[in-house]
């Protein structure tokens, strides 16, 4: 971790965290030891407190050690009582480990989730490195929340010691969707003592740095209602010289007390705990190495071969939580985009999410902007793009997996009163309508609802398109979005083909017609002379135009002119030249979303203007959009440029030197949603982990640069790389087979016509037909 910045800036370092989740529950852990645990929903059902405080990073769960001979007390984590000793902290995919050597004891604390169960395991290994026999006490302390915020816990949480298992149970009858659940905390050793009384453990005016319980031999066993509730467990450990002992603290939640007991029985012995650890490590290993690459850029390899997909799966899709945001909800467009990166390693999850999202569509075709599992409370809005991600993502899923049958799955609609004319949004729990339809019909309804156009013939922007912060541009019902036009164009083309394949000409024909009209409108109305405009306000004022003083150019209107494949080639090239020239800042290693930022000008685009200039959407590097710029460069065939820009986005390159680390400050192993672009914070990373850019970083590298194009059981490799890349390999594990694909570039091309051989045989059309035959196949792709 960076420690204090060396510059003048008196800022403390940002926490470097890990988000460790499974489909049911998870936790967050920083390198100091801080963090929190949830089950089911990381916002509505926190088991322990989420503290969004990067300065003190206060721990809501702590493991303590006490030397019974000397009374010394410390923690195996840097906070709250470990800072004097050097510690090695390792964040891995699925676990975090703290190691330190202190008071003659080698300590190793490993935290992980069981692979499939809502159980967090905190394993402590202690080895006596002295020649004396040692007597230690080990304690675990957690503050119960069982809801959204800890403030309500004293009034609502009831605790008891389960006589059968000896575990500490807690429940909260007021925890709406989770009212029936039972939370548990336990330790694998017996005998143990417990208390659920926070005042007993911490003492009056006590704190996690000085808990009163240090002075007691045992905990009192107090549980019940009306306490300021905690889970504290304590055991004694005898350590002969040179010997090692281990114990594991368990924290989780299940539907019933019996389920809790069953879970606890599965993790009693060191062997069981080790088996759980091995299982979860293997699970991650398998998922993250489905596709492995080896390119001339090892920093790119590190991202592709693990961290990006881990960020997507663990944090974005399962956890939906991180340090800077702990939302718990599914964002309609957000997890759909994430799932596009999962089609190779976890297609089942991508499919499941597609159907889950379809179920959040109203009868009228619009959708919930976000919703909370399990019940589905969420918000109905006038965002114009949300609903369109359903057909966009469905098309990608079907193309890559070949699973067109998903379109025939029946999914219900939601029913609620439509928004009143003066209403911009409505939060609530809509009922599930009795009417169901196939996923195909859900997508059709989305396209129809999303095709409403305004005076310039472009899609109405409503209270925002992809850019949440531009919520006033079209709020009056007249403003139009150029980005929406590109997006809709991409969808209409894919879906006209798809409808034709299903024999649905009644839809295909008008969609093609609409696409033609839209194209014409964009070219006639949105071309600004040197690039594409971004939008038109309700009053017709253009945005993202050379006429504007602020936001003269916006990246996504340029990038999507290429991604949609809808712009004429010459204009697309000109638009991307403008983006490269005006939005890429090589000196600061940034790709800006728009420039100049909104500040003192007269335009009122929405809450984007509430951010300081250069922060987040307001003209910072908004990484999600920046990945689209790189994607567009590759799609244009500018491979050298695409690889160069990808390198600008790669967080590893933002933390190569001590100086870099002090400037960037945040984790270099995951993607940051934004990087600040204005002095005095140029180059400082913003909100990490919980960002849709991880999935796009993955796809842009794999699909657009390395050229991995899967269509069911057919694979094409069509690279667009840096001319100085001589060779790279992609290893693809598919079912029982493995394909080792070597791409050779002797002529130093960016694109070139690939000549393909499969196991020594020339493949004329370049399409590799994949088999599930248990063998390893050698593919050579030679660019000529
Ligand atoms: C946030 C939102 C995402 C939106 C983006 C741009 O990441 O979660 O839905 O598209 O910001 O505003």
Question: How would you describe this structure in keywords?
Answer:
784 residues, alpha+beta, eight-stranded antiparallel beta sheet, 17 helices, 27% helix, binds alpha-D-glucopyranose
Protein described:
This protein has 784 residues and is α+β, with helices and mostly antiparallel strands. Helices cover 27% and strands 26% of the residues. Strand 33 (708-711) and strand 34 (714-717) form a beta hairpin. It is globular, with a radius of gyration of 28 Å. The model is unreliable at 1-7 (pLDDT under 50). Alpha-D-glucopyranose (GLC) binds at residues 331, 333-334, 466-469, 617, 624, 692.
Euclidean distance between termini CA atoms: 46 Å
Sheet-strand content, in percent, reads 25-35%
Largest sheet: 8 strands, antiparallel
Tally of individual helices: 17
State the share of residues found in helices, binned by percent: 25-40%
- Shape descriptor reads globular
Cofactors and ligands: alpha-D-glucopyranose
Output mean pLDDT.
96
Summed up:
With 784 residues, this protein is an alpha+beta fold.
Layout of helices and strands:
Layout: E1 17-21, E2 25-30, E3 35-39, E4 61-67, E5 73-74, E6 87-92, E7 95-102, E8 105-113, E9 119-128, E10 134-143, H1 153-156, E11 157-161, E12 168-172, E13 182-187, E14 193-197, H2 198-202, E15 229-239, E16 244-254, H3 257-265, H4 270-288, E17 291-294, H5 298-319, E18 330-331, H6 332-339, H7 347-358, E19 368-372, E20 377-380, H8 389-401, E21 410-415, E22 426-428, E23 431-438, H9 439-449, E24 480-481, H10 482-501, H11 505-526, E25 535-536, E26 542-543, E27 553-554, H12 555-563, H13 569-583, E28 584-585, E29 590-591, E30 594-595, E31 621-622, H14 623-635, H15 639-649, H16 658-664, E32 674-675, H17 693-705, E33 708-711, E34 714-717, E35 727-734, E36 737-744, E37 754-758, E38 761-763, E39 768-769, E40 776-783
Parallel strand pairs: 36-40
Antiparallel strand pairs: 1-2, 2-3, 4-5, 4-10, 6-7, 7-8, 8-9, 9-16, 10-15, 11-12, 12-13, 13-16, 14-15, 17-35, 18-19, 19-20, 20-22, 21-23, 24-25, 25-26, 27-30, 28-29, 31-32, 33-34, 34-39, 35-36, 37-38, 37-40
Helix pairs in contact: 4-5, 5-6, 5-17, 6-7, 7-8, 10-11, 10-12, 12-13, 12-14, 14-15, 14-17
The structure holds alpha-D-glucopyranose.
Alpha-D-glucopyranose binds at residues 331, 333-334, 466-469, 617, 624, 692.
């Amino acid at each position: 971790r960076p420690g204090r910045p060396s510059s003048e800036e008196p800022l403390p370092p940002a926490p470097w965290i890990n988000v460790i989740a499974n489909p049911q529950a998870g936790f967050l852990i920083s390198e100091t030891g801080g963090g929190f645990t949830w089950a089911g929903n990381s916002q509505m059902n926190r088991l322990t407190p989420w503290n969004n405080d990067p300065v003190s990073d206060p721990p809501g769960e702590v493991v303590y050690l006490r030397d019974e001979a000397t009374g010394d007390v410390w923690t195996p984590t840097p906070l709250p009582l470990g800072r004097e000793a050097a510690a090695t902290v390792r964040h891995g995919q699925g676990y975090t480990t703290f190691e330190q050597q202190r008071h003659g004891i080698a300590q190793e604390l490993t935290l992980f989730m069981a692979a499939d169960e809502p159980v967090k395991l905190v394993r402590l290994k202690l080895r006596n490195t002295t020649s004396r026999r040692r007597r230690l006490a080990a304690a675990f302390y957690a503050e119960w929340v069982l809801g959204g915020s800890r403030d309500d816990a004293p009034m609502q949480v009831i605790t008891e010691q389960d006589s059968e298992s000896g575990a500490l149970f807690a429940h909260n009858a007021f925890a709406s969707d989770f009212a029936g659940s039972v939370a548990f905390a336990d330790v694998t050793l017996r005998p143990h003592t417990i208390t659920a009384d926070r005042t007993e453990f911490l003492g009056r005016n006590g704190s996690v740095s000085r808990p009163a319980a240090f002075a007691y031999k045992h905990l009192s066993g107090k549980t019940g209602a009306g306490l300021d509730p905690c889970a504290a467990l304590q055991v004694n450990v005898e350590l002969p010289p040179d010997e090692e002992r281990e114990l594991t603290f368990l924290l989780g939640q299940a539907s019933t007390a019996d389920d809790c007991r069953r879970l606890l029985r599965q993790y009693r012995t060191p062997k069981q705990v080790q088996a759980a650890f091995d299982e979860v490590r293997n699970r991650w290993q398998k998922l993250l190495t489905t596709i492995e690459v080896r390119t001339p850029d090892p920093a790119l390899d590190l991202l592709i071969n693990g961290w990006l997909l881990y960020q997507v799966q663990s944090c974005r899709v399962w956890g939906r939580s991180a340090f800077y945001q702990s939302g718990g909800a599914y964002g309609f467009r957000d997890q759909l985009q994430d799932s596009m990166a999962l089609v190779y390693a976890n297609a089942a999850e991508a499919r499941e999410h597609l159907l889950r999202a379809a179920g959040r569509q109203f009868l009228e075709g619009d959708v919930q902007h976000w919703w909370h599992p399990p019940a589905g409370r969420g918000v109905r809005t006038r965002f114009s793009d949300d609903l369109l991600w359903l057909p966009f993502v469905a098309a990608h899923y079907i193309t890559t997996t070949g699973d067109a049958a998903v379109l025939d799955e029946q999914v219900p609609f939601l029913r609620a009163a439509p928004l009143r004319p003066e209403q911009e949004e409505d939060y609530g729990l809509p009922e599930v309508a009795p009417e169901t339809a196939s996923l195909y019909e859900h997508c059709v309804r989305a396209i129809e609802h999303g095709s409403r156009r305004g005076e310039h013939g472009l899609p109405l922007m409503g209270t925002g398109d992809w850019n949440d912060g531009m919520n006033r541009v079209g709020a009056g019902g007249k403003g139009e979005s150029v980005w929406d036009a590109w997006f809709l164009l991409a969808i209409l083309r894919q879906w006209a083909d798809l409808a034709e394949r299903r024999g649905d000409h009644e839809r295909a024909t008008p969609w093609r017609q609409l696409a033609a009209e839209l194209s014409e409108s964009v070219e006639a109305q949105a071309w600004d002379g040197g690039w594409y405009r971004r939008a038109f306000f309700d009053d017709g004022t253009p945005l993202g135009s050379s006429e504007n003083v602020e936001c003269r150019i916006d990246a996504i209107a340029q990038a999507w002119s290429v991604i949609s494949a809808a712009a004429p080639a010459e204009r697309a090239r000109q638009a991307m030249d403008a983006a490269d020239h005006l939005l890429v800042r090589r000196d600061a290693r940034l790709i800006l979303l728009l420039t100049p930022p909104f500040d003192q000008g007269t335009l009122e685009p929405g809450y984007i203007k509430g951010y300081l200039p250069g922060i987040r959407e307001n003209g910072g590097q908004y990484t999600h959009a920046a990945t689209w710029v790189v994607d567009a460069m590759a799609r244009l065939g500018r491979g050298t440029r695409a690889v160069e820009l990808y390198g600008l986005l790669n967080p590893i390159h933002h933390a190569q030197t001590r100086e870099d680390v002090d400037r960037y400050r945040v984790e270099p192993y995951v993607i940051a949603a934004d990087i600040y672009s204005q002095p005095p914070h140029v180059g400082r990373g913003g909100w990490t982990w919980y960002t849709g850019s991880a999935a796009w970083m993955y796809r842009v590298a794999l699909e657009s640069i390395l050229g991995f194009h899967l269509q069911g059981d057919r694979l094409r490799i069509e690279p667009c790389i840096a001319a100085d890349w001589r060779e790279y390999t992609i290893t693809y594990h598919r079912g029982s087979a493995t394909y080792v694909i070597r791409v050779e570039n002797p002529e130093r091309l960016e694109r070139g016509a690939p000549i393909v051989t499969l196991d020594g045989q020339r493949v004329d059309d370049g399409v590799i037909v994949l088999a599930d035959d248990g063998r390893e196949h050698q593919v050579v792709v030679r660019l000529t």
